[in-house]
Each structure stands twice: as structure tokens, then as C-alpha cells.
Amino acid sequence: MIKGLKFDDKGLITAVVQDAQSKEVLTVAYMNEESLQKTIETGETWFYSRSRQELWHKGETSGNTQKVVSIKTDCDKDALVVEVLPAGPACHNGTTSCFTETIVQKDQVGSVDIIPYLAEVIRQREIEMPEGAYTTYLFEKGIDKICKKVGEEATEVVIGAKNRDAEEVKWEAADLLYHLFVLLQEQKINVYDVLKVLKTRHEEKRASTKK
Description:
Layout: E1 13-19, E2 25-31, H1 33-42, E3 46-49, E4 54-57, E5 66-73, E6 79-86, H2 114-128, H3 134-141, H4 143-162, H5 166-186, H6 191-209
Parallel strand pairs: 1-6
Antiparallel strand pairs: 1-2, 3-4, 5-6
Helix pairs in contact: 2-5, 4-5
Pfam families: PRA-CH (PF01502), PRA-PH (PF01503)
GO biological process, one term: L-histidine biosynthetic process
Protein name: Histidine biosynthesis bifunctional protein HisIE
């Protein structure tokens, strides 16, 4: 499996670590043959530290391990993309990804990209609890307030639909999704676990119709 990969003159290969569900780039690290072999054997990421000049197992001390889903190489075989299911933040600063500082952003967040983006913003709000933020207010008030808001927004969606008011439905549906995301974060449920349930149901339904 390692045969054919092109390690540099220091015996290293670049490893781009990506969330297998959200597709967000979590970090960029380096592997040598030994750390790559350990990654394959254990099913969790191992890297080579250039500063310490030793292997390190991601999450060994923090508990923020990364379960490997797949390892891919590029056409030149001199770089890897490691898709993982993270058990916690990838960055030592406590953020999901090491890539948090935007240098240039010309386009708005895409309609699909907003799902991991919104989930991460809400997760960070719960960690940092910035004063004056509405999300902070919801977490401070607790589960009863959050559940009440989910119920209220769901009712507003129903009212908009009954009134045949498409604009109202769009705005209220967005409010409902936001508050639902807050509820999922409060319950420590990854939004992608919910999407996996939908996918499983869909696949089961397709399988049953073929019988």
C-alpha cells in the first residue's frame, strides 16, 4: 500500500487531514513510512513531528483522536488526503480546524457549505460564550428555552405555509433550522449523524422497493 509513494529527501510526505463527513480541511501534517504504517494498522492518525523529530499519535494526550476512513494519494503520489472522523478538535487551540483565519474571501458561503459552517459557529459559541451573542443567550438559558424556540419557530413555519406565504416560510424555516442546530449542539449530537439517519432510511427504502 505504501509502495510507490514519493517521500521527500527527509523521508516525509504531506498529509492533508479532512473531515470525512463535512469535508472540512482540519489540518496539514507530515508522515514518514513508519507513521503511515501505524496509521494504517491502528486505524487512527499518526504523524511525524519535524520539530521534535519523532512520531506522535493524534489525540494520545488530549483524547481528540481521528478515526481513519480513507487515505488517498494524488496523481504524483507525493501527497496524501486522509479522511477521518474526529473525536474532538483538530487544532491545539481548541478549534475544529487549524484553518480559522480568513485571508481572502471573495464569494459568499455556498448553500451546501453553510451546514458545516453554521454547525461550527454554534459549537464555538458554546465554547467561547461571547457576551451579547444570541446563541450565548440560548445556551445560558438552557434546554427549556432552546426547546421552546424550536417549537415556536416550527409553529411559525406552519402558519406561513397555511397562509401560502413563500417568503415567510423561507425565513421561518431558516430560523427553525438555526434553533434546531443549537438544540443538536446542546445535546452533543453531530448534525451529520442526523444526515446519516436520513441516508440510511433512504437506502433502506430503495432496497425494499427493489424486492
